[in-house]
Amino acid sequence: MYRKVIAPSVLAASLLLVIPASAASSVQGAPGIGDSYYPESGNGGYDVSHYDLRLQYQPKTDLLEGTATLLTTAKQDLSRFNLDFGLKVSEIRVNGAKAKFATSGAHELEVTPAQPLAKGKQATVVVKYAGKPSEFKIDGWSAWQRTPDGGIAAQEPDSAVWWFPSNDHPLDKATFDISINVPDGTQAISNGVLQSQTSKLGWTRYNWRSNKPQATYLATLAIGKFDITTDKTASGLPILNAYSKDLGDNAGAARASVERTGEVAEWLESVFGPYPFNALGGYVPNVPTGFALETQTRPFYSPRQFANGANVSVVVHELAHQWYGDSVSVDNWKDIWVNEGFARYSQWLWSEKEGEGTAQELAQWAYDTRPAEDPFWQVKPGDPGAENQFHGAVYDRGAIAIQALRNEVGDEKFFQILKGWPTERAYGNVKVGDFVRYAEKISNKPLAQLFDTWLYTPGKPAFGAPAAKPGARAQAPAKPAVEPKSWKKIAATNNIHEH
Ligand SMILES: [Zn+2]
């Protein structure tokens, strides 16, 4: 995964932005939502409940034209507010009236409506725009991936600014209708259910609906020439997968993995509870990158994930995020462990189910193979820093922490926690501490010290298998650990968040 690099100058500038605490009743909305890692992400002062994106894309030229309609509610009286966006805007209307606008910072769009927004009132914001997403760059880089037959928006922590204006932070989730017009013979893939598809005068329009709250970075757009497969789960959820026609030798392995989406989701429901969204699927475009991403209802997979044959483990990881990450989202990007620790742990549970090594064996191996002096142990999964947001320690040490919890509270309580949490906090935002308190409540055990050790204390803590029975003597010196059968397969997904 590309890490978002914040140039020191940008950081300094954003810290210097002073919001005038004027005595006037209307104020300007903050240019950031308050994220400690990414001060410019999101915006203050309002909340978006729905995005309606009506887009047209020409693969030959990379020109994206759009009208975005945002249903917003002001959280305070606002004389001005910000959107996050990078493409060229031609017009903005707020409640039907033309608004003034200006750009600032890396991706800020400052909107001054004709009439100030009133606290608690809904306001409709319409933004008309056009541009080539590949030409918009932040620190020399574009999240938009051009392909020989189209383009892809799938990145974390942000990709939205390359294709639609938004309040770009997981704290402000919304429902989405995404409609894309592309030349006949080209497909447009996005989140949720394909409501309809119509052709007219050489263009085909795809209408997608994601009807549950969705973070902006989990909205995705894939335009290109795809083979599409459709199916339904036993409970009636529509499954739609899309594969670039240009996957070469990876085509078979990609299908042999992603076509198991329904099966994997059914198993995950047995561990995490009811699937939280209206559709399932995945897509594999012809991109040269190596990562995968949990884009809501329809994860993105790079073809390279399938270079060694089928890779169901990466499907398990991205689908686990639908519960841990997409439905229950971070409050601040520093809470990334609530996403990645659990997605990695789900891969260990799948291995356990498949008889390829238990989660305890995988945790032990992850622990034993990293000596105490390995810098791996210096990263705190509970607050890794923006530069280490997707460090291997957030995944592996983060998952060992979950195994340590399991060993502490026992399987019955552990699986009760694992299944209860996504229901308890469905469609919300959480801090690491919220999970700790929930686990304490369900297990009726104090766990602050365990999590403090595993998530917040640099250095290699003690770790071992639990005693066989309460009261039984601790296991004799552990026999030399053996590499679990699934270890290399899971390790091969370590680049899911690497370029
Ligand atoms: Zn992940």
Q: What's a concise summary of this model?
A:
The protein has 499 residues and is an alpha+beta fold. Helix content is 25%, strand content 27%. The strands form six sheets. The chain has an eight-stranded mixed β-sheet with strand order 6-5-9-3-2-12-15-14, with no helix packed on it. A four-stranded mixed β-sheet has the order 1-4-8-7, with no helix packed on it. It has a four-stranded antiparallel β-sheet with strand order 10-11-16-13, with no helix packed on it.
Q: How are the elements arranged and paired?
A:
Elements: H1 8-16, E1 27-28, E2 46-58, E3 63-74, E4 78-84, E5 88-94, E6 97-98, E7 100-104, E8 108-112, E9 122-131, E10 145-147, E11 150-153, E12 174-183, E13 187-189, E14 193-200, E15 203-214, E16 221-224, E17 226-232, E18 238-244, H2 251-258, H3 261-272, E19 280-284, E20 292-293, E21 300-301, H4 312-323, E22 329-330, H5 337-354, H6 359-368, H7 392-409, H8 411-424, E23 429-430, H9 432-443, H10 448-456, H11 487-491
Parallel strand pairs: 1-4, 2-12, 18-19, 22-23
Antiparallel strand pairs: 2-3, 3-9, 4-8, 5-6, 5-9, 7-8, 10-11, 11-16, 12-15, 13-16, 14-15, 17-18, 20-21
Bound molecules: zinc ion.
